[in-house]
Specification:
The chain has six helices and 18 strands. Its EC number is 5.4.99.-.
Length: 300
Amino acid sequence: MQWTYRLAIPAALNRKTVRDCLKEWLIPKRIQGQLRQGRRLWVNTVPASVATIVTTGDQLTLQFLPSDFRTPTSNYAPDSPNSVVILYQDNDLLVVNKPAGIKSHPNQPGEVGSILNHLAAFLAPTDQAPYMVHRLDQMTSGAMLVALNPVVVPILDRLISTKQIHRTYYAWVRGHFSQPQGQFNDAIGRHPTDKRKRWINVPDAQEALTDYQIIRTTAHQSLVKLTLQTGRTHQLRVHLAANAHPIIGDPLYDDQADTAPRLMLHAIQLHIQRPFSTQMVDVSAPLPSLFQNDDLIDTF
């Protein structure tokens, strides 16, 4: 098993070294070293070193082996592909529309029923496999990013951490806001008495930033657009609950959760920079019909 990339050098990398290209494409230093030591670098089919100078239009070939990666194989047990709805797919990644109520990934060896199990079955005929990059809570629906090989996993992780991949959500929350838009900046850490939960301004709290914008309101509730600037556990749920606007149906943070059929949180859009490219892709997940029924929402 190996993964070979043949990449045209863009104008932005003209007269740069191969090392510069690998750094620009966010390939981890450890893997850069593996490519160098294994002599698995070529420029226009000629063996190259990391010091080789490239010019616009040159073809840089990289050959990756399983030994380059901590998790070289995807071992999710295939499950029924019937629930899989693909919103976007290329050779390196896909975005799936995850239904509410389905786990993102299994927690135990051999466990099935998660979206990654379903994707393993869906991708089997293509000899591709899913690799975890981004997870959604079980009761959250919407756009979820999945890698299709181990090469791009650390690259996508880095793109997420450096905000070059943006995640946007819609949530129905309780109450009305005094301002039409703003930012929550409460630091988030482990809840002092409930290990299932997170909370703000606790001793181990880390920086957390969430931008919000009101989309529309009903008599008692608000539909809010939320953009993550950081990625703390339960960040959206905690920021809203701690600021007196819990997400409707949240079993951990909404005291009236049992009045709603589900957690009213949906990943509406992913803004993605593709690996090894400057191309940006916007992928949207259709808003569930329940989110569009204002009269029903006001009864929750």
